[in-house]
């Protein structure tokens, strides 16, 4: 009984923390997907996550799709000579044995044409297509506008 | 021989002192400053010439900022990555500086005045530290401001009517008297940023 009460207390104490999802197919593991709350649907939403390649061969993230946006795309923020640009990238390479992050200031998914506002605390699915591993579908947590990284309750 | 050198040196010294005094006027003039100005760096606020509107609808010009240290950056609210990241960084810095930063002018100047009207900026900035002011204007007004800060930006068309903007990403710091005080680069380590800002505040 005591343990049960303790469990409830712990749950109540961390309402903003999620069990960050992790999905593996072949050697590819996608984890800690997150996005930020949107202001309406006019501005593009964002998608960040981590990809780990434990397989023996290089792979690459080549496409992203989601019912949350009409035109989800892969972009990279590049600052060259002090000028920030955000070129569209055809693929994000995920070399064998490496971990690649889509994170603020680097690679990111850009969710153009949101089909509805992204609300804090909600989740939406994204399907990532890898050149070798194929498709991985994973739920994405929508965090606050002030989130700067994934918020997981497992301390990751 | 030795004595003569001393006299010559003395004369030389007097002449340079006179030249220095005469030169000081020119040195301090707008032209003098502009001539010595590194063309890649922002002008002192006192030599900038622009007029913008803030997200509360008030007119703002560079003179309004002189007397307080300032932190200024360019961006636009339709960008999903760089601008929220910069705004979050700045919000974090302000939080760390606490009330020491109450004196600091913090401004986002939009490079996308077409979409970022004052009320749009107000809506967006409501999500960040309330000390951050958003500035917009006509495209010419934004162009004049960018010129003063030596900022470049460019509209990049995308599918349909949509577009994005490339723009200078750093955060500019200014001393109380309006002199340019440094740039915080986009990927700069936060450990160096706070002391840099504190130097402006002091």
From TrEMBL, chain A:
<protein>
    <submittedName>
        <fullName>Copper chaperone PCu(A)C</fullName>
    </submittedName>
</protein>
<dbReference type="InterPro" id="IPR007410">
    <property type="entry name" value="LpqE-like"/>
</dbReference>
<dbReference type="InterPro" id="IPR058248">
    <property type="entry name" value="Lxx211020-like"/>
</dbReference>
<dbReference type="InterPro" id="IPR036182">
    <property type="entry name" value="PCuAC_sf"/>
</dbReference>
<keyword id="KW-0732">Signal</keyword>
<dbReference type="Pfam" id="PF04314">
    <property type="entry name" value="PCuAC"/>
</dbReference>
<feature type="signal peptide">
    <location>
        <begin position="1"/>
        <end position="19"/>
    </location>
</feature>
TrEMBL record, chain B:
<keyword id="KW-0186">Copper</keyword>
<feature type="binding site">
    <location>
        <position position="79"/>
    </location>
    <ligand>
        <name>Cu cation</name>
    </ligand>
</feature>
<feature type="disulfide bond" description="Redox-active">
    <location>
        <begin position="79"/>
        <end position="83"/>
    </location>
</feature>
<feature type="domain" description="Thioredoxin">
    <location>
        <begin position="41"/>
        <end position="202"/>
    </location>
</feature>
<dbReference type="Pfam" id="PF02630">
    <property type="entry name" value="SCO1-SenC"/>
</dbReference>
<dbReference type="InterPro" id="IPR003782">
    <property type="entry name" value="SCO1/SenC"/>
</dbReference>
<keyword id="KW-1015">Disulfide bond</keyword>
<dbReference type="InterPro" id="IPR036249">
    <property type="entry name" value="Thioredoxin-like_sf"/>
</dbReference>
<dbReference type="GO" id="GO:0046872">
    <property type="term" value="F:metal ion binding"/>
</dbReference>
<keyword id="KW-0479">Metal-binding</keyword>
<dbReference type="InterPro" id="IPR013766">
    <property type="entry name" value="Thioredoxin_domain"/>
</dbReference>
<comment type="similarity">
    <text>Belongs to the SCO1/2 family.</text>
</comment>
<protein>
    <submittedName>
        <fullName>SCO family protein</fullName>
    </submittedName>
</protein>
<feature type="binding site">
    <location>
        <position position="83"/>
    </location>
    <ligand>
        <name>Cu cation</name>
    </ligand>
</feature>
<feature type="binding site">
    <location>
        <position position="167"/>
    </location>
    <ligand>
        <name>Cu cation</name>
    </ligand>
</feature>
């Amino acid at each position: 009984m005591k343990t049960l009460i303790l469990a409830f207390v712990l749950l109540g104490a961390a309402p903003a923390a999620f069990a960050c999802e992790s999905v593996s197919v072949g050697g590819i593991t996608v984890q800690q997907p997150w996005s930020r709350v949107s202001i309406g649907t006019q501005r593009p939403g964002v998608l960040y996550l981590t990809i780990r390649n434990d397989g023996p061969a290089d792979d690459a993230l080549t496409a992203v799709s989601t019912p949350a946006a009409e035109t989800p795309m892969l972009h990279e923020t590049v600052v060259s000579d002090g000028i920030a640009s955000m070129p569209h990238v055809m693929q994000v390479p995920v070399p064998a044995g490496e971990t690649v992050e889509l994170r603020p200031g680097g690679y990111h998914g850009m969710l153009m044409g949101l089909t509805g506002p992204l609300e804090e605390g909600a989740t939406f699915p994204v399907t990532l297509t890898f050149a070798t591993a194929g498709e991985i579908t994973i739920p994405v947590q929508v965090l606050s506008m002030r989130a700067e990284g994934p918020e997981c309750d497992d301390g990751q | 021989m030795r004595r003569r050198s001393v006299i010559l040196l003395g004369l030389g010294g007097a002449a340079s002192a006179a030249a220095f005094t005469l030169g000081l006027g020119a040195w301090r003039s707008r032209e003098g400053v502009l001539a010595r100005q590194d063309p890649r760096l922002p002008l002192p606020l006192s030599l900038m010439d622009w007029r913008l509107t803030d997200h509360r609808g008030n007119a703002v010009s560079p003179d309004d900022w002189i007397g307080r240290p300032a932190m200024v950056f360019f961006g636009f609210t339709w960008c999903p990555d760089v601008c929220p990241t910069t705004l979050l960084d700045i919000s974090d810095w302000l939080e760390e500086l606490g009330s020491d930063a109450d004196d600091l002018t913090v401004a986002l100047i939009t490079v996308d005045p077409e979409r970022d009207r004052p009320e749009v900026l107000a809506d967006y900035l409501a999500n960040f530290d309330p000390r951050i002011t958003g500035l917009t204007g006509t495209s010419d007004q934004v162009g004049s401001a960018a010129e003063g800060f030596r900022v470049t930006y460019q509209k990049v068309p995308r599918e349909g009517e949509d577009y994005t903007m490339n723009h200078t990403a750093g955060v500019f710091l200014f001393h109380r008297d309006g002199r340019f005080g440094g740039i915080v680069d986009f990927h700069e380590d936060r450990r160096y940023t706070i002391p840099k800002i504190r130097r402006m505040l002091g």
